[in-house]
Amino acid sequence: MVDEQFSSSGCCQQKMREGGSLGVRAVLLFVIYLCCCGNGGGGFVSLSWAARLGGVSRQKLEVQKHLKRLNKPPVKTIQSPDGDIIDCIHISHQPAFDHPFLKDHKIQMRPSYHPEGLYDENKVSSEGPKESRTNPITQLWHMNGRCPEETIPVRRTKTDDVLRASSVQRYGKKKHRSIPKPRSADPDLINQSGHQHAIAYVEGDKYYGAKATINVWEPKIQQPNEFSLSQLWILGGSFGEDLNSIEAGWQVSPDLYGDNNTRLFTYWTSDAYQATGCYNLLCSGFIQINSEIAMGASISPVSALRNSQYDISILVWKDPKEGNWWMQFGSDYVLGYWPSFLFSYLADSASMIEWGGEVVNSEPDGHHTSTQMGSGHFPEEGFGKASYFRNIQVVDSSNNLKAPKGLGTFTEQSNCYDVQTGSNGDWGHYFYFGGPGRNPNCS
After folding, report:
1. 336 pLDDT band (50/70/90 cuts)?
2. 356 burial class (0-12, 13-18, 19+ CB within 10 angstroms)?
3. Could you tell me which residues come within 8 angstroms of residue 13 by beta carbon, excluding any fewer than 6 positions away?
4. Computed from CA positions of residues 151, 155, 158, 162, in that sequence, does the dihedral angle turn out positive or negative?
5. Which of 164, 193, 166, 162 is nearest to 180 (CA)?
6. Per DSSP, what are the bridge partners of residue 395?
7. Band of pLDDT at residue 372, cut at 50, 70 and 90
8. Can you give the residue ranges of the Neprosin PEP catalytic domain (predicted)?
9. Cβ distance 219 to 251 under 8 Å?
10. Nearest to 109 by CA among 91, 96, 94
11. Angle CA(339)–CA(343)–CA(345) in degrees, nearest 5?
């Protein structure tokens, strides 16, 4: 399409007389002056280029408004070695309280009950050296400071973070249909979604929480718009438009964070990722009470091949008294809760629990992605090479942690990413999972 152009003859007067938005005219005024009226009037102005400039300006204003909503005034600011800025926000000023239903909410500072029957995390594994079980894991920003009491650490959202999203509205949200659906054997649905999984799951009962200890790696990502994660899913409803989901684990997502660091994350949705929910604290919903752990911040250190293994424990459970869904990180950090009113089905209980890995396969040039899941090694390679989940449990209606009954597995393409379950006295129910993506058997 050829741009409509105006010569310099009478350009200034003509453009100033034109109708249209005062805002657009204000944005373009200086450009018009330079192009049409400057340099003796020898320039040309492209209307389509000018319109694009106006669009960029509007987007910039939209991004700035969104950043102002997300980034609350800090009590203290900590610069992390990885480039993150961690803002210590007063607990009552966090993004959750932008929600209209939470305007007068009284923060629940601790759960009414913890689940009974937690595993002893200090047990020695029969599958690996003792030091692989006791290595401390932390977040990188701790190297440069901590947040004071009555504040929570919030990773500051930068302009570039929002601009990497497809739109301001979609920033911090997962794509629709990214959920693993074990009961589906529809290959078209699998190919359309672009998401691939290797999971273990239980269904057929009412579940009130789940726990797992998750091996932490830093998988390689082929394309910036792809990601790799290891998480647990707490699911309610159907896999249609009404799916409720609470998710937590670690992920590497260049698109979301702008780097390849392994980061702690959470997610929630009450309508199958359509309009509700988000990662971490990027919308109102999750209420954080903990001043030590920042959602979306880098985890350090991570596991290395044939070397020290590091893992994190995550527990999510429903408070039997208040009905809120709580999250605990490790044995020491109760992070906060999702108020039950956010959900429909999960206001009562979950109908399925899933644990495992997920990657995005954007299939560049028609080939399978080489984005790694877990460690990038297949399950049969075992401890020190393959990634694992251990001590996986569910919370029953009596608020007891129990071994999962009838554990199933699911993967769309086992030649690309696979899963293998097992059980023993130290690790309880566990599984190895993951893979390299593209390889001679997965093209």
Report:
1. very high
2. buried
3. none
4. negative
5. 193
6. 401
7. very high
8. 189-443
9. no
10. 91
11. 130
Give whole-number Cα distances, 186 to 190, 243, 245, in Å: 7, 19, 22
DSSP-derived 3-state class of residue 96 = helix
Contact 307, 97 (CB under 8 A): no
Q: What is the CA radius of gyration of the chain?
A: 25
Query: pLDDT, tens digit, for every residue of 154-193?
Result: 999 999 999 999 889 899 998 766 677 776 545 444 454 6
Contact of 251 with 229, CB cutoff 8 Å? yes
Helix (H) or strand (E) holding 247: strand 244-252
Q: Which long-range contacts (CB under 8 A, 24 or more apart) does 95-104 make?
A: 95/69, 95/70, 95/154, 95/281, 95/282, 95/283, 95/284, 96/281, 96/284, 96/285, 96/286, 96/287, 96/288, 97/284, 98/69, 98/284, 99/284, 99/285, 101/339, 101/341, 102/284, 102/287, 102/339
List residues with catalytic annotation.
Answer: 247, 358
Q: Using CA atoms in the order 125, 128, 131, 137, what is the torsion angle rounded to 10 degrees?
A: -80
Lowest model confidence (mean pLDDT) among 194-198, 226-230, 250-254, 255-259: 194-198
CA 321 – CA 340 distance, rounded (Å): 11
Distance between start and end Cα atoms, the chain: 39
Q: Which two tokens stand for residue 319?
A: 């408070």
Beta pairing, strands 244-252 & 228-236: antiparallel
Distance CA 148, CA 76 (A): 8
Amino acid at 295: M
DSSP conformational letter for 164: T
Distance separating alpha carbons of residues 177 and 364, to the nearest angstrom? 20
| Alpha carbons 396 and 388: distance in angstroms, whole number | 24
How far apart, in whole angstroms, are the C-alpha atoms of residue 16 and residue 347? 58
Q: What pLDDT digit, counting tens, does each position of 380-406 carry?
A: 999 999 999 999 999 999 999 999 999
What is the Cα–Cα distance from 140 to 291, expressed in whole angstroms? 15
Q: Residue 250: how many CB atoms within 10 A of its CB?
A: 25
Q: What six digits make up the tokens of 349?
A: 């209980």
Entry pTM: 0.84
How far is Cα 413 from Cα 278, in angstroms, rounded to an integer? 28
